[in-house]
Please model this.
Amino acid sequence: MIQQIPEPMTSRQRVLAALSRQPVDRTPICNPTSVATVELMDLVDAPFPESNRNAEKMARLAATSYTELGFDTIMPVFTIIQESSALGCKMQWEGKDNWPTVKMNEPIWAEPEDISIPSDFLTHPDTQCVLDAIGILKKEFGDEVAIIGKTMGPWSLGYHCFGVEKFLLMSLDDPDKTRRCLEKMKQATIEFGRAQIEAGADAITLPDHATGDLVSGEYYDRFLKEMHTQFVEDIPIPIILHICGRTVDRMDYIAQTGMAAFHYDSRNKPVESMETVTQRISLVGNINNPETLYAKGPEEVAAEVFENLDAGVQLVGPECAIPLQTPIENLKVIPEAVRRWHANRSEN
Amino acid sequence: MAELKDIQNEVIRQEIGEFIEREDERQKIVGLYANTSSAMHDIAANIILGEHLKVDELTRQAIEGGSDALEVMDDGLIAGMAIVGIKFRENFIFVPEVLACARAMKAGMKHIDPILSASGIEPVGKVIMGTVKGDLHDIGKNLCVMMLRGAGFEVLDLGVDTSPDDFIEAVEEHSANLVGMSALLTTTMPNMGKTIEAFIDADLRDDIKIMVGGAPVTREFADDMGADAYGANAVECVDIAKQLSGAAK
Model:
């Protein structure tokens, strides 16, 4: 269970302590992927897609996580496509009410030899704006709130740059070739991660979608565990791994990497997940997005918060980037429910 | 009643013995292979193993040797995919393996399709398929399209990032009464509901049946949105399509 200390902590202290499984005054609320919604965009006049490409708007929208919702983290990288754009992928930037996406049916690479990290990778407008936004947020909120960055793992970059189907077939047809691709693509992961540390990030999310919906737990062990372990040294800051879907079958491997935390999906029960990782890694999550936060009400949201807290999950929040039409009121319930749970616990 | 030991092909026998756990499914699958030829078993086995070059060769040989195209499709290709579908549903295999099997099926279908097209056989039904607006993922949807075509449906594949208007336009233009929607992202799943609402607004909802699927989609979510059916995988998609179009045997 969570070790609780009486002294009040800042949000930043709370998050960093929870990421290293140290005592906290209360469980921090965190979404290491995105809490951007259309309502929040309207509130601060920072709509998609501009808020994904303009540092000032990106920072403004991200800050609502703390100023409007009461979360303990600010995450300015709402998408999973910033570095793919900088790598040369064809993009579909969409509008205010849809996520920008990579046109994965128009892949840019087919062979390991094709992979090249452009010399302007970190100064491309779509990576530079992330670095600038982190700088803005660090200056304004750096003492009180944890600023989380995001750098995509090489498996996810493989989907974007090779196309999902081709990348997955390659992994089966020629595992060695796939490993060579991952080795080359990981340079982008490391470079972008380190640049965000320099810009002021306190922790970094590393989405790498070896999801249970697509590949087996054994695949994670075969292709990614060692590389993720190395990232702990290569990106010297608390890393929050994010993988969607049912992942209990690979959580033991994930817990062996030495990463600080794993952001887990609602398809994994909090208790079974905590039992699997056995305090080797913090868990972040796992309130259901499409059925609960998007479509249900405060009571159902609070119930999922309590389930996580009862299980001892170290940081509570949505399971993934939330749907853009999610009502703000449902998001505000999360910190309220956390406080209520801790108050009840103190009384008892 | 046919028994597992009666199946001569060792790969098929092992696959059924090892991976088909539900007794009713095991009986159904054993029955599927009970009265079919060893040539069809060879094709099915290589579908299961994802050996597209062998399936290509074996299917070509079967057709050139005078086998009926429908027989090769049903007893070879689709019979193999029936086992693949169950293995996928039960997490014995994952998407890379299924993609390899689908590639093998495609290699076989290239010999079958021209014959079926020329034969003038009436389709079982007409289906509009697409991944919803904002979502560019199509592996699952493509598997469904392939399996539906294999099961005799005429399928109009709208591809990815399909707006509600595109779905509606396709239904009207092709007089289809069955729509399949897919989403891979929790962030785009709500666009399924928006598409259903658009069909209601266009006064077309009562004329069509809507089935939905995709990794994060659940039966509860499908019910809440007002879909007619939810399928967890491509095999279920075909079963549902048959039921909804009244083609279930």
